Amino acid sequence: MTEAQTQPQTVVAFDEVKSLIGKSLGHSAWREITQDQVNTFADATDDHQWIHVDPERAAEGPFGAPIAHGFLTLSLLIPMWSELFDVTGVRTKVNYGLDKVRFTSPVKVGSRIRMTVTITDVQEVKGNGLHLVADGIIEIEGEERPAVVATFLNRFYA
User: Fold this and answer.
1) pLDDT tens, 80-102?
2) What are the MaoC-like domain coordinates in residue numbering (predicted)?
3) Which of 2, 32, 13 is nearest to 111 (CA)?
4) What pTM did the predictor assign?
5) Is the dihedral of CA 92, 93, 94, 100 positive or negative?
6) How far apart are CA 43 and CA 114, in angstroms?
7) Alpha-carbon distance 112 to 97, whole Å?
């Protein structure tokens, strides 16, 4: 979470989650993508393609600068989601998966991104659980097209 933000913007009790269907949770704080972050991700995933890790060569490449890996940008969905939403009265929270993920625009190193989220569905599941479906858009500051558009799935068990 950002220093200015000590708790999620929307916090609801387990029994209130269904009331959020169709509601926007707003947007997370802006976060800058740094070259150190990109390099660390490259090391972790063994993806050292020059468009990510060679700033001089990338400056001459198709994007005019090094860009973040799409999966790095996608992975930041988790901390941004945590800024936006939490459920109280649960014993377990699970990232259940993703549907319909698209990397619609590259994120240049030095850019700032944030996420907006809308809850699209909540269904009961076995084990006193809720399956929550959310549409997330990771925006790039100053850009028309978003970086990532994804439907992500979460489960909460009371």
Assistant:
1) 999 999 999 999 999 999 999 99
2) 19-128
3) 32
4) 0.91
5) positive
6) 24
7) 25
